Amino acid sequence: MAEAHQAVGFRPSLSSERAEVEFSAPVLQEIYLSGLRSWKRHLSRFWNDFLTGMFPASPLSWLFLFSAIQLAWFLQLDPSLGLMEKIKELLPDWGGQHHRLRGVLAAALFASCLWGALIFTLHVALRLLLSYHGWLLEPHGAMSSLTKTWLALVRIFSGRHPMLFSYQRSLPRQPVPSVQDTVRKYLESVRPVLSDEDFDCTAILAQEFLRLQASLLQWYLWLKSWWASNYVSDWWEEFVYLRSRNALMVNSNYYMMDFLYVTPTPVQAARAGNAVHALLLYRHHLNRQEILPTLLMGMRPLCSAQYEKIFNTTRIPGIQKDHIRHLHDSRHVAVFHRGRFFRVGTHSQSGLLSPRALEQQFQRILDDPSPAFPHEEHLAALTAAAPRDMWAQVRRSLKTQSEDALEAVEGAAFFVSLDSEPKGLTREDPAASLDAYAHALLAGRGHDRWFDKSFTLIVFSNGKLGLSVEHSWADCPISGHMWEFTLATECFQLGYSADGHCKGHPDPSLPQPQRLYWDLPDKMHLFISLALRGAKTLSGDIDCHVFPFSHFGKSFIKRCHLSSDSFIQMALQLAHFRDRGQFCLTYESAMTRLFLEGRTETVRSCTREACNFVRAMDDKEKTDPQCLTLFRLAVDKHQALLKAAMSGQGVDRHLFALYIMSQFLHLQSPFLDQVHSEQWQLATSQIPVQQVHLFDVHNYPDYVSSGGGFGPVDDHGYGVSYIFMGNDTITFHISSKKSSTKTDSHRLGQHIEAALLDVASLFQEGQHLKRGCRGLREEDSGHRTSSLPCHTKGSRASMTPNNF
């Protein structure tokens, strides 16, 4: 989601003098260090993997194998073909009375070697099977005999009862695409947005790159791909996120919303108690690897490496680059309320505190009348809007003066913000209330979230929840998985009493929450004031717009036999063209977790086929069947790009890695420079719903997550996120900058609704839907909004009048 902003902005951070020093190291040394980091991560997980089961085998399988060998030996059979006798000869001679013991030890050693060889064979076989991606490239709904055979073999070799990290050693490495294919696909992707003259210049630069630098850079990438776990992910984390010196707020965080139409309890402390308890239950399951790995088609596992850093994680600022600090455990949360910081223990001697006990602790904080100390209230603005190098210098002083308080915050499981204002959907002004809700989650007041933490849980005064997530440690599906569990658990599993409090009884023996005290010298006040000013500027410039589109949803798109994501992406192309009157590079995030430690790839959704469809929709001479034909071609092209990205054959991560390698080798490439100076005026992302079984959308259709959003990528661009809520609603989250004269989040929202209705009306099942702006002249696009239909924002508010 928010990665698009960082992906665009990473290049300037490499051009500074301080960053250039980092590239003075030899490239082979960097490849060696990259592989060393990968192997350290593997070794750190080995012992845990052994204790929880050598998947797909288990310790019990070793016992079974050893027993079988002993039985065969008792029956005077030798399954080792003489190897056990040779092992016995190598063992020390302890005398005749220990002859039987030597036989048992020889059998145990042989069983262990055979068991290890079988496990290794299973891992290799499963890795080879998982390297097959033909199933992904097949048409939707069709399955070849080869894929059916592959599915059967995967089922056989996958074992039973996998845990979260069971498949990690069997996942294939992300392949390095052919550089010729990457350049060809790149040129194809930019052709719709470039003039003939500009495209010819770009093609010349591309051919020069292929002739002069490509082969050398590609060879080094190939070398890294064999030594490191992933040829691009560690550089992606470092150069796109950790080396960025920009403010984190808006640029590197995204938000997740609560239920849209219901609030389980209006009691703030109670909602905080249940939510914190649910989050810590998720951490407990995570530590025990009881969370099931995500499987595509119920069979193909995705990489689970990103789950490791959800909790107990902080992004620590540095002068040249930040680093991620992850603790093995933390038994407290840091809480912010009315400018004050508190440390709240989450465990007692008997284990995790109950939701009612946590509610009691949060209520004590809410009832505490003590005021904030000077400048303490705005301290967190340093994490929000201060340049990272400046914050690193201030943090050094802060660590000297207030080490205990800083450690309590940075060492917490996560950060909790008890907001003093209500937020969420209201009947009085549903449109404005949703926009304000999104803005509060994305930016807040600029000083009431600790943006360095992996995530901040935000609890508003009316019981509404939200999440603000820092992006460097993982991508949205990971935090989304946790958030789905949290909402379902705190609402359906834990629940609330009739008076809105957590179930259970308070514990008066619990000590009071610990107030944190900061020693802030006078010289620090200036930095805090500067950071606060920058945070208010960033916050005030963000234009957030959220609206639920309820004319149709995923069920309608499925009846049209189309990919729901491709349907929305083509509608977004149509909406953006009507808004701006031109096409632009479009960033859509796709996951590459089919590979070990994979993160994301870019789908360049603005294709030639999409442009042909958009032009036809605004051409009065084109008939509906003609438009529908072009629409299906555009959808097929988008599906092909998406599948290529997921299977490691995308464009942007390969070009990114080539660019980083060129910097290490001090090779100047005008082509790569041009690639990484592109402007992405439309960044899009779908928030997946991963645990449908947790929510009963048929009986409780309002109890579904309403997704989240992120800041705009470009100063004159849009950030658009969407989620399918149940079967009949799509919620859109749109952001832009108020300072831009070219963008307007509400205007784009109107265009999106009209585009969706227009596209749906091309199908027989959608003929009854209200039409939008078919035949809008190109010269008028981006200006005619008065004829567009009004949103359906809050249209369902009257259905649940008691739940706001």
Indicate the percent of residues in helices.
40-55%
* Number of H/I helices: 27
Number of domains: 3
* Unreliable residue stretches: 9-13, 15-22, 776-804
User: Quaternary state, please?
Assistant: single chain
- Name the CATH superfamily classification of the largest domain: Choline/Carnitine o-acyltransferase, domain 2
Main beta-sheet strand count, sense and barrel state: 8 strands, mixed
Radius of gyration, Cα only, in angstroms?
28 Å
General shape: globular
In order across it, which strands form the biggest sheet? 13-7-6-10-11-12-1-18
Q: Gap between N and C termini, in Å?
A: 28 Å
Instruction: Summarize model confidence as the mean pLDDT.
Output: 87
CATH topology grouping of the largest domain: Chloramphenicol Acetyltransferase
Tally of DSSP β-strands: 20
Secondary structure category: alpha+beta
Share in β-strands: 5-15%
Region (Disordered): 776-804
Transmembrane segments: 50-75, 104-126
EC number: 3.1.2.22
Subcellular location: Cell projection, Axon; Cell projection, Dendrite; Endoplasmic reticulum membrane
Overview of the structural elements:
One of its GO terms (cellular component) is axon. The chain crosses the membrane at residues 50-75, 104-126. With 804 residues, this protein is of the alpha+beta class. The chain folds into three domains: 56-161; 247-542, Choline/Carnitine o-acyltransferase, domain 2 (Chloramphenicol Acetyltransferase), CATH 3.30.559.70; 550-647 and 679-797, Chloramphenicol Acetyltransferase. It is 46% helix and 12% strand. It contains 27 helices and 20 strands. The strands form five sheets. An eight-stranded mixed beta sheet has the order 13-7-6-10-11-12-1-18, with helices on both faces. Strands 14-20-19-17-15-16 form a six-stranded mixed beta sheet. Helix 6 packs antiparallel against helix 8. The two termini are 28 Å apart. The model is unreliable at 9-13, 15-22 and 776-804 (pLDDT under 50).
